[in-house]
Amino acid sequence: MNAIAPVFCTIVPPHVLDKLAQAEDPRLSGPARRALEVDAAHRTRRRATALRAAAPTAAATGNPHRSLHDCEHRTTLPGKKVRGEGDPPGGDATVNRAYSGLGATFELLLSAYGRDSLDGAGLPLVASVHYDEGYGNAFWDGEQMVFGDGDGEVFLDFTLPVDVIGHELAHGLTQYTAGLEYQGQAGALNESVSDVFGSLVKQYTLDQTADRADWLIGAGLLAPGVTGEALRSMKAPGTAYDDDVLGKDPQPATMADYVRTTQDNGGVHINSGIPNHAFYLLASALGGKAWERAGRIWFDVLTGGELAAGARFTDFARLTVAAARSRFGDGAELAAVTKAWSQVGVPAV
Fold first, then answer.
1. Nearest to 5 by CA among 263, 310, 318
2. What is the pTM of this model?
3. Which residue among 153, 168, 181, 333 is the active-site one?
4. Is 269 in the active site?
5. ∠ CA(238), CA(198), CA(342), 5° rounding?
6. Which residue in 6, 92, 171, 217 could disulfide with 140, CB within 3.0 to 4.6 Å?
7. CB-based contacts of 108, cutoff 8 Å, min separation 6
């Protein structure tokens, strides 16, 4: 495995906040500018501390170790502890949703893949809610989860979609396994892996088969006045929103529309649409519950020790073909994964 290299990863892409920051309405531009400032500060701090030793983990027990904290609209982390593992639900719905989402992610990893928490060794799951005033984002900072309440104009409470919780925790999974760099195609793979496992957490929680899933990331997060249904669509990248203020979803579905940009670390939140779509095509072709076969292939690649930190789409694709053959033989899974990558224009053989 690659060395642990924590990165700062947010669910709302910088290009979305940049667009909002230019809005004439200060109710939209003010919170977006504040979120950009906060995110930039965290990103700088994460780079400065990326090489420090990882925090000690709990002994592997096969049970989650959750700790929920309330920032009380301040920015000091982790904030006041308000719920520990096994404590009954309290009166704060945001705390309760975060607690449940951490548990759902832990349960998927353990039940479907036999992995004890993000690091495989019982890593405690720490989350803070009510971060800052009207903060329009959620993030994994290399050590814990943080959720904003949203501004109420564009974004609602970031604990509402369970896939947002799963997405951000999956950045921790990547951190403790392949350690994908947060730049270019490797960064887009990092983001895509989080979308994949975030979607699988939601599907697992709802006990959905691939054909019944919505394949949306962040459904329910956008405020009622926004023209859109989610932050991203794995089924149809580029269609999640088309709003006067937010603009149009820029994600491509295939390499024919790959976006070359210097923004957002080389478009990590944009070009992730391509491997996202490949996974959707694979899961849909196989049918049934996506975490059982399609998810297993992705998990095997992420944890197999052969995925380089600077991997490109072709590297990942070829490893998924090898993983499908190794686990399932020369059957439907192998044919489906090869075809899925071909459909998005990524050579896999």
1. 310
2. 0.93
3. 168
4. yes
5. 50
6. 171
7. 166, 197, 200, 201, 204, 291
For the question of residue 171 being annotated catalytic, the response is no
Q: What is the largest CA-CA distance in the chain?
A: 58
Candidates 69, 269, 277, 333; catalytic one = 269
Q: What is the pLDDT along the chain (349 residues), one digit of tens a residue?
A: 444 556 678 889 888 988 899 998 999 889 889 888 887 777 655 444 443 334 444 455 789 999 999 999 999 999 999 999 999 999 999 999 999 999 999 999 999 999 999 999 999 999 999 999 999 999 999 999 999 999 999 999 999 999 999 999 999 999 999 999 999 999 999 999 999 999 999 999 999 999 999 999 999 999 999 999 999 999 999 999 999 999 999 999 999 999 999 999 999 999 999 999 999 999 999 999 999 999 999 999 999 999 999 999 999 999 999 999 999 999 999 999 999 999 999 999 8
Query: What single-letter amino acid sits at 160?
Result: L
Is 231 in contact with 243 (CB distance < 8 Å)? Answer: no
